[in-house]
Amino acid sequence: MRVVVIGSGIVGAAAAHRLSGRGVPVTVVDGAYPGQATQAGAGIVCPWVDHPDDEDWYRLTREGARRYPGLVSSLGESLGYARVGALLVAGEPSDLEPVRALLARRHAEAPEMGDVVDVAAPSVLFPPLAEDLSALLVPGAARVDGRAVRDALLRAALRQGAELRTGTATLTSDGGVLVRAVREADSHGRVTGLPGAPADRESWRQATPGSPQGPPSAHGTHPASEASPSGATRDAAAGAPHEPRSPYGDEPGAGGEGTLVEADVVIVAAGAWSGEVCRGSGWSCRCSRAGGRSCT
User: Which pTM value belongs to this model?
Assistant: First the structure.
């Protein structure tokens, strides 16, 4: 069975790592475009307080939180993982009662959350908080660097035989995967035909892990442009901001014929780009209850 994973955020990387570890031939395709949710995520591991009416979501995330220590140990890298606890704050003590009841109901099946306790003065633990707040402390909550986890999973997947391709992947009408050369937006937001794309300096996306790469500019982007806080680019000469455009272009099939990659199973983990990936296939992309996206 051959699997193509489209997207190499933490979901795609985890799928590639798991499958390649079982001996499945895996090809990961990613365009390295801005907007990855993994890079933006806060890295909070505390699923016990969320989605009280969605048991499917909760079971999935509960098991993920439970397995993090073992995953960190098996990867053998520093991933910024630490159990630091979480404060749940409210202006009135009565406002905490619903979450207190939820945590009590879930504790038996998730003892790793620790014993939840009241905190009379949460500002002592976290000085930026107002002094008149009430809080609950969930000691088992953890933090993690999602980018570091993603990169470690991908490196491990490559060691296990997975293949990494940089390109724009789209699904064809017969379920195939078409990979085109990566294109990038220039300083005016126009999509060019050049390979490569801006990426965060700490990410493997600058190049395949272990391969040489040129130094990034002072802003972690191409020297011709500067990233603004809003995500737009500013032309170095004209000084005018421009909204970036989709790297997939305005029409299906833009960017050349590409290379067809054979697959028995395709996992679309492209986040915000999932709709573009599925556009030429006749499949529609929708948000799932778990907060991700799925093609139907």
Answer: 0.70
